[in-house]
Amino acid sequence: MAATEFGQAVRRWRERVSPEAAGLPAGGQRRTPGLRREELSQLAGISVDYVTRLEQGRATSPSPQVVEALARALRLSAPERAHLFHLAGLQPPGPDSVPAHLTPGVQRVLDRLTHTPVAVFDAAWTLLVANPPYAALMGDPSRWQGHQRNAVWRNFLDPDDRVRHTARSRLELRTALVANLRAVTARYPADRRLRRLVAELRGRSELFATLWDTGVAGHHEAARKIIDHPRVGAVALDCDILTVAGSDLHIMVYTAEPGTEDADRLALITALGTQSLVG
């Protein structure tokens, strides 16, 4: 990898993205234009130290996941994203891989829903990006790495989330996720990362293996969910899932009925989360 060229490209693109365009507060006077390294770190879900080492050419061979995360955070166009992959010595993901690129339209949706919890997942339910209200509601996902960012993996191997479930609703969700994942593997049979995910789930979860082998049917759909927030308490929200035609992305949106106590609680959660991110 031409480490210096890669780092220069990241810094050049970082300096052209305004914090407002990335959905962040301007934060007072800045020595340089664009995003700070700390802000790029937050948006991409990688450490500030690693961003620094990449920009300075001291870190080599970033993973495809890191390059993809940087491309999303920097709002690169498709040609720029491909160029960043080439600078990293990697081939850009082809049509045989699960798409992970945020289209301009999806990015604009995120930009406009600044007070609504929104997260974008790929076809296999790997989290690509979550806005600050989503992180405030569901917990900060920036610390998750690798398969931890996949909702199927987390539901079977680390089901400690804030959504309240009965035994029946949990099983229904898991069944739907397995059915969805089976359909995705049929659409992208050459995706090696997807195959590794399925292999790990089959090896570590007897329930997943059983559901996978029996060919269960089902689909993940909109639902009324109760979120147990550690600071505000229980809040009942509508969870809607929008699928983006042509890019195979899932947009998850949480909303509350206007004028209700749940709407007030959601507004408080968002405000508390924003304060913690700024302060």
UniProtKB/TrEMBL annotation:
Disordered: annotated segments: 1-34
Residue ranges occupied by any HTH cro/C1-type domain in the UniProt entry: 34-81
CDD domains, per the entry: HTH_XRE
Name of the protein this chain belongs to: Helix-turn-helix transcriptional regulator
Annotated Gene3D superfamilies: 3.30.450.180, lambda repressor-like DNA-binding domains (1.10.260.40)
InterPro entries associated with the record: Cro/C1-type_HTH (IPR001387), Lambda_DNA-bd_dom_sf (IPR010982), MLTR_LBD (IPR041413)
One Pfam family of this chain: MLTR_LBD
